[in-house]
Structure formats: structure tokens, C-alpha cells
């Protein structure tokens, strides 16, 4: 799933193609460098336990970043994901604690699977709301999702008056005692959340590369007008990307609530920024049409490993923030260089053909 | 009006000019003289180096080697501002205007008339704009937004912008490619006027008749080398073509004789409103038979492109019915129309036809991914095979189908757009100005393809503002004017005069862009 697998074409100068390969694989190289650096300077960095903990941290951001990649590739932006995480966590907490009370003196209780289904529906519904605002009411994506950011966050606060839902252990009678397993369980020694990330990541990469839907997402981001005139149903594609982003955010909400065995309405604050950072670090172009799921996941790992590693080395949190910012800016600068080199290589090859 | 006996002084010349880009040589040791008080036309196929040479003169690019001599002095222009200070103005093919600003603001952009260097003197700018417009014989309000002007008027604003900088040398890069016949006439009058006042004009165009009409001196470029330069006397189209492509024939599509099939498409009373309360398209009805090429001729703004937009389903605000094979079309989406066998090749390749940052392969198959998909799985292997097949059939010159489509020349890009349309296996092909902005070789190829497709039983509707094109390619011609059909001709009855007359019916040349009040409803 690295983004260095594009076949390079014959006819390029050897040095140019080597440089291009280096540039294309830059996120992957950065990840290796970061890993090497910390395995030397941070004690216990390479221990299995630490790697598992780190992966669990990274997974949360990676989910959001995958959804964000589709949105950005389609030419939009989704600022609401952090709030959706918070709201979905609260919905999960509410359902585990109270079920649904229709007001007749009794309540409907759900098992873990049903709870997850409902929470995911909430996330997808907010995504659909974003899609509706953007496609039907012509609100700019930045503004539309900024609005839903506030709405979802406010709704999360309202659900508990700003308090935490504690002790989400579940109830064996209702079959919701397995809720904790999502965040803490293991399959074959690997945490459930990592398995979920693998499934979602592979599915997203498959959609991007091997389905018409994926191609249409890139087309819409590249040139919406031309895509529409080519028969792409632009509205549907946009609905899909925002709903998928909402779906990813809902998963994160469930995982966090399960890991902490509690749901706090402020959970997920500024997560959207980390997700955007991971996507950009992975080579996604903010102007749309360009980006890969594999790159994004590596980008999420670079950010995650960097911050965990710095913590282990005892670097202050303030410095961490500065370093993260520098890394992101450097990534974009290198991305520009790559695009220039790529365009030059294509033009040269075309010039050899004599127009 | 042309006075070949009068000596026109040479205002600017290039001696031994070469320009090398990484991988290509755009100009090879060229010697070029620009005569003042005359129209110096410049012609050559796409990529021959015309634009590069003009960019050198206008300060956009610098020569790799060679000299640029202005009034006997060797000069170097580091930027367009630098060149503008020396009295050189350029109007690019793609206009560099700000649609969100007024005419006056555009003309004085970055050189605003100010009081004390801070406060913009709007009144002075307005007055100067009015004076310029008067000189250019145009009644364009200085306070109107440029975005509300017609393309022809925008071109005039660009020219005014150059004149406002006291341009002594004015470069016009394909100024007529977006203009109607009436607007071209006005532009030519302006050019005449400028020539009379001693301005040296460089005129680049693909329209050869125009060059012969307007030019005093001609320079032909091929592959970065000047292959012919002389005064316009004795120059005719075969001469230009010979120097451009190195052979004497202008290979327009030869007719392939074939029988027409049954009617495959019919439009009944298509009416589409415009933003100003009038109509873009009004009461248009026609039919098309299989194997027939129907040319739609008309001026800019006659409603031709808008009609095609209705047919492909890009516009949904129209009334009237469309029939394919006698069946009424119910779907109002582009995808639905494509499924019924209609495909569009849009006028503006760059903004409507292609997705510049996607690869050639991805652009080609965008409309027909469904046929390459089983379930949800897209077969990349079959896609690559189909693309290879079409690249071969359409003779697209590509180094690799994986490169971005923007790396191709205009003609090859157009072939990619045509391939995309053909991959949907259409029955009716809509082509909006299919030869716009491509060189003469690619043009002939596109026309050949159109003929071949028609012979294979496709119905083709093509829109053009080029008389010669519509006359030589169409089996039948419809002329549109002001949104209505103003004339219909068969191959036998069409004459150039009749077409031009029909296209001018009810048309007020150079009317203000926005005659109706904006709040009008309709």
C-alpha cells in the first residue's frame, strides 16, 4: 500500500526517474527514517507492546484520514469529523447506559452489534447532511462542514449537559457487555481496532483504484464540469464521500468510547486537523484530484510515530507541536517539487515523439 | 488600404534568436523583423514556435541565445512590465481579465490612476476608458463588470488595456478564434485604424483567409524555424500551407459517399430561457438521420452551444421534447442521455472536455467505465487494452497513456476527447467547434474521422462558426440566429452569402451585452 508503486515509463532519463521514484516514495522513506531514529534514541521503542500501543493511537487518526482523503480528492473538505467522533461516542454511551426510551415507562435495549449499527447510521446521516448542504443548497464545503462541526459538538454537549457517560461496561442481559471488546479485545494477538483499520483501509484503497466509483471521485475533484459532461453523477459522488467520511468518524467514536469505557462530549476536538495533516503528508492535493489511500495511512503513521516517539524521548509537548507543523509544511513543499519533476518528465517524453 | 510600396520602418527585430526548453528547441536561430504601421502576420502549426517567439518579444520568456533589437538598440526584457515600458503590448489567446472587476478597473490594473499614490481616481480612469472605447469604436460602459461582457467585447477591453499603456507594438494571439463574423469586422476596423496611426501589429491566427486579408507582411514558422518571410504580395493560401506543412495540398476531408439511414434523432420545439429574461434557444426543431452530418452555423451567442447543452442534458431548464430512434427521452441527466446513445465533444476542451490532472487513460475511459466493470470490479487490464486500441485507431501520439493529459498538444487532446465520446458507442455525436485551437494537420484528421464515423452510420451534429468548414463537411446545414433557426440548407443549396445572411437575421452587431434589465422575469 505504499504510494511508490506507480510504474515508471520508459523514455525517461535514468537520473530523472530515480529522483522521481525517491520523491514519490518520500512519505514511506520519512516513516522509515522516523522509525530508525526513535529505535536508536528512544528506549523500548521497538518493543512489541509499544508498537501495538502506538498502532492503536495511529489507527484512530488513520480512520479519519482515510475518509478525509476521499473528501479532499473530490475537491472538498470535511471539518466536521472531530465533532462526529464526539457525538457518536455520546450516542454509543447513551445507548449502552439507557437504551432508547420512547416515553411509555419502558425502554428498548440493544446488543453491541445493534448499538454499533445505530451509531454508524448517525455518523453517515451527518455525512449525508453535509452532502445535502453542499450539493443541493450550494454551500461551500468549508462552511457547510464548519456548521455541522458546531451542530454536532453542541448536540454532543446537550446529550449529557456536558457530563461524561461513565462505566460503559454494558449489560450481559442485553448482550451489550461485549461493547468493551471493540476497544480492548485482540484477535490473533492484534487489537480489534487494527483489524478494523486493515479492513477499512483495504476497502477504501480498492474503491479508489479498482472501481468506477473511485475513478469518479478523482474525476470530480480534477474537473467537476468535465466530469459532469462525461456522465459522472457528481451529486451522488459527493454524497458518497461525505457519508463515507461520517462512517469513518463514527467508527472512531465507537472505538474511543469502548477503549475508555466512557464517553465524553469533548472527545475528538481538533481531530479533523490531524486527519487533514495525515492526508496532506501522504501526498493528497488540497485542490483535489490527487491522493492515495496508502499514502494517507503512511502519513498517519508518520505523524503518530513522531508524536509518540517524542513523548518517549521526553521532548516537551510544545516542541512536538512545532515539529509536527514543520513536517507538514516540508511535505507540501516536496510535493510541489514532485509535481514539477513529473510534469517535466511527461513533457520531455512527449517532445521526443515530436508532438 | 494596403500600401506595399510604402516602406514600413522596422521597429523591432530578432537576430539569431534561439529558445531552448528542457528537452525541446522551440526556436532555432530565427531572424524576424517587425514592421511598424503594418500588420505582421505570423502563422504556423501548433508547436511551431509562434507563441514562444511572441512571448520573447513581450518579455514573458527570454532568448537562450540571440539578440532582440528595438529601434536599433539591443534590449532585454525581463518581464512583461519591462516590455510594456518599451511600448509592447500583448493580447493573449486566453484573455487575462478579471471578470469580477469593471472594465475601467481591468484596463488600469496595477497602474491605477491615483491621487497622492493612495486614493484611486475613479473619475479619471472612467474618462480615459471612455476615450479609449471611442477610439476603438465600442460603446462599452467603463463601469460594467467584465464578466458580463461578450467574449468579443472582452477582447476589445484587452486591446484597450494595451493602448492605455501607449503600446507601439501590439501582439494579437488568435484574436478572432472566439469572435463572430460581425465582431471580426469590427476588430479589423480597429486594426486598420491602429495601423494608420503607426502601431506595429503582430497578428497570429489559424484562419488563413483572415491572414491574407489583414496582413501586410507574413512570416511562416515550422518546428521553430522560419520557412518563409515576405510582404503579403503574391501570397495565397497554397503558398502559406506549403510553407507551414511542407506540402502543397490542403487536405480537407474527402466525401465518402454513403446512403443515409432512418431518422435517429429529433428535437421538437426546444426552448431554453436565459438569465436576462429572454431566450438562449427558442422553438428549435430539427431531425437527424443515421449517417448524416448536420452542420449548425451561426455567430457567437446564437444559441448553438446552448442547444447542444439541452440535448446532452447539461441544462435542465428547457421545454420541448427530444427523441432518439422515435423514443422520447425521459431522463434529464447527462448519464441518462449518454446511456441513450448521445455523446458530446464540448467546445472548451480545457475546462469542459478533459480532466487535466488525470492520465490520458483515465480521461479516455471516464464515460464508459461501466462497460469495463463487472459487479463493482473495474478490469484495469481490459481498460488498458481498450485505451491502446483507441490510441491506435485515432492515431493519438502519446509517449505513455499514463501521462497527464495536459502533456499533449491541442490536437492530440482533442483526439482524447473524441475517443472518450466514441467509447460510449454513441448513435448521435454532438461536436461543438471540433476544430477550435488545433493545427491544420490535426484539423484535417478530425474531419476525416467525422466523415468515417458518418459513413459507419453515426449521426453527427456539429457546431461551427467557420464558413468553409460548415460548407465542406455538412450534408445539411442549419443556421441559427438569436436562438432561432433562421435558415436550413442542403449541400446543394448552401452558398456562403446565403449562410452569412441567415446568420445575421435579427442580429444587432455589437449590441450591449446586457440589454434587458437584470430584474426582468420571464
From TrEMBL, chain A:
Its main location: membrane. It is a multi-pass membrane protein. GO terms for cellular component: plasma membrane. GO terms for molecular function: transmembrane transporter activity. The keyword Cell inner membrane applies. It comes from the Bacteria. The keyword Transmembrane applies. The chain crosses the membrane at residues 27-46, 58-77, 83-100, 112-134, 187-208, 239-262. It is found in: Cell membrane. Signal peptide: none annotated. Keywords: Cell inner membrane, Cell membrane, Membrane, Transmembrane, Transmembrane helix, Transport. This is ABC transporter permease. It comes from Paracoccus onubensis.
Automatic annotation (TrEMBL), chain B:
The lineage of its organism: Bacteria, Pseudomonadati, Pseudomonadota, Alphaproteobacteria, Rhodobacterales. Residues 503-522 are annotated as: Disordered. Residues 12-248, 265-507 form the ABC transporter domain. Coiled coil: none annotated. It holds the Pfam family ABC_tran. It is a peripheral membrane protein. GO terms for molecular function: ATP binding; ATP hydrolysis activity. Keywords: ATP-binding, Cell membrane, Membrane, Nucleotide-binding, Repeat, Sugar transport, Translocase, Transport. SMART domains: AAA (SM00382). It is found in: Cell membrane. PROSITE patterns: ABC_TRANSPORTER_1 (PS00211), ABC_TRANSPORTER_2 (PS50893). InterPro entries: AAA+_ATPase, ABC_carbohydrate_import_ATPase, ABC_transporter-like_ATP-bd, ABC_transporter-like_CS, P-loop_NTPase. GO terms for cellular component: plasma membrane. This is Sugar ABC transporter ATP-binding protein. PANTHER family: CARBOHYDRATE TRANSPORT ATP-BINDING PROTEIN MG119-RELATED, D-ALLOSE IMPORT ATP-BINDING PROTEIN ALSA-RELATED. Gene3D superfamilies: P-loop containing nucleotide triphosphate hydrolases.
